[in-house]
Sequence to fold (767 residues):
Amino acid sequence: MSVVWSIALAAVRQRRLQSTILAVVVMCSTVAIVVALGLLEASSGPFDRTFAKQHGAHVVATFDRATVPDALLTQTAGRPGVEAAAGPFGQTVVTVADIRQSLPPGPLTVVGRPGPGGPVDQVDLWAGRWAAGPGEIVVNRPVEPLFSDLVGATVQTREGVNFTIVGLVSSVSRTSEAWVTPAQMQAMNPKTTQMLYRFTKAETEGDLRAATTSATAGLPSSGMLNQQSYLAVKQDVSRAAAAYLPFLVGFGLLGLLVAVLIVANVIGGAVVAGQRHIGVLKSLGFTPNQVMGVYLAMVLLPGFAGCLVGTGLGALVSQPLLQRVFAGIGSSIGLGVSLWVYLAALIGVPAVVVLAALIPASRAHRLSAAETIRAGSAPQPGRGQAIQGLLSGTPLPRSVSLGLGLPFARPGRSTLTLAAIVLGVAAVTLATGLFQTMTAYGDTAQRVGHVHSVVYVGRPDQIRPKLNDAAIEALLRSQPGVRYVTADAWIDVQLPGHTGRIKAQFLRGDAATRGDVVVAGRYISGPNEVAAPSAFLKRFGLNIGDRLTLALGGGRTQATIVGELMDAANDLVIASWPTLTALDPKRGATQYEVRLAPGADVEKFNAAVKAAEPGLYPQTKSQVDQNSVAIISAASIFTLLLGTVATLGVFNTVVLNTRERRRDLAMLKSIGMTPRQVTMMMVTSMAALGAFGGLIGIPIGIASHRVIVLAMLNAVGLTAPDILLDVWQATALAALVVAGVAIAMLGAFLPARSAATLTIAEALRTE
Fold:
């Protein structure tokens, strides 16, 4: 076996160029695979680990305190199927005052609980201590150093109660936003009660519903107000990762397929070029298995080296990507790529490389010593001659017609090269489609062309405007160049029975001109109407036509869902202004969205508004969506990697063809072919494959784009509108055909130039 490795190592050194190409190809493919597998593992693994560590709640149930007494809820802990239970805990909602304090204004769900431990939801108390007396509160925040300053801060509520933040916790179950002592909760006169359950069977939503029904059997039917599933929380945590995952997996698979094709091409070329070498080895006593082992080791050595470097680069790339994807979740959920991902790459990729080389290497196993010594490395006579004869009768320059016929001399090699080009073009097509889709999504999310300036109303720590709400709107409409003005009130509201804040945007004025995309139903037009993003409807199991109860402070109102919007937010509703009036008639707009006439200067408008009312803070509307930029950047990087890999595949093919045809090149030069014509011939041989590969790769890329975009949108809860799918134009498709030719010509140019500089004497001497 040591002899096999020695021979293989010597062959790798002798074929440095092919070995380097193979190592780079495997490296690029491994980077894509490590990142895709790392994100796949991170999309669920960190949540599962933290959930198990904290004994997270499978179901968080909220009950009407007046209907269901605590004694009955305590009995539910012993019902069949209940593994553990915690509670009953009093629960209420307070409203944080809008005075620019430590916590944002709006509703805050508070639960009375004696400590951070217990049989269910053992929250991570990562800063400060637990509440021990009246006026003390513990707040749920991700484990981030920037939140540490909250400890010791005061929270003032509109109900007239002041709290001091004494601790910060992280709860993976999201059972509450804040906690106080049970005695403090009693003083706050809670109207609801919270129970936390862990069940023996909780793999699906059906399991959870059945277990909850069994646990709460015998309780008043109207007593349960809401139940929150841990599966919904897990899905919400993984939404960002799930959006990135489809295209990363797609690029990873494309990269792996291209690598397999190039490996097969490299080893096939090595077997053909080394037929005499194979014969010598067999005549020296090497068995067929040993000869095949030499060629497999020739691939494995550079392949493993490339895999090793690619795994390291993948680790470097995946970590910042994970931090971006899971930004704001909290470091208590252990981010990072697990060891099994690296092991899978280090073992799996070389195994795929060896398998890809197995078929062409088996040819070395079958050839006899006499046959291989007698045979040369050049193509067998007659291959492609019929095609060459047909092409010679065309008016094409002879260098071009000869180049067009070259691929037919080695049909197997040309087919593998063509397949690599096809996948390269498919990757470029996919990336182009993703760019168009994410640009369209970003323009829609930022409402490009519909909103030019956002005018913010001064907060308590800023200069407050002297004008009232109606006067501010009139001032904005009176400015030169203004076409539309929409008054917005961004206010956190509560959905009774649900923990957590819901952002509500109440609109007045020219709301229909904001550029919101309605994918189902219609836009809001009257009182007590709301429109909600697809993700919001899916999160809460709502449909168009359902009634939604909104609560703000002591006010409550019901509104009808009339439309579904294209937006990835799952905690947002768009409501009409009369809906806000029903909740709190004293509330005014917190900002104004302004659309200007074509040609109007946004900066001049902003300056004029600031001069007229110092209490207003106009800002030019951002035209960039950061999530779109991140996906476009990642797709561009992987497209560059795959384009490089495909180009290297062409490079390798031309190198092999050049080495096999040294005698033919010498003969062509001896009869007068110039170096420029030699270059043209070799480049043309690949350009034809590039054009054909472009025609095949484009529909594959378009189909991949549709599958991946639909998967991405489904992952974040978006209903796909046509503007995100129908992104193709004739000019762009024509350019993509050119991309295939460009990949082929870039890969062919350098070895073609090398062939052109080869002298006649040198070519004949090496025969």
Summary: The CA atoms of residues 690 and 740 lie 4 Å apart. Residues 327-333 have pLDDT under 50 and may be disordered. The radius of gyration is 34 Å. The longest strand covers residues 82-96.
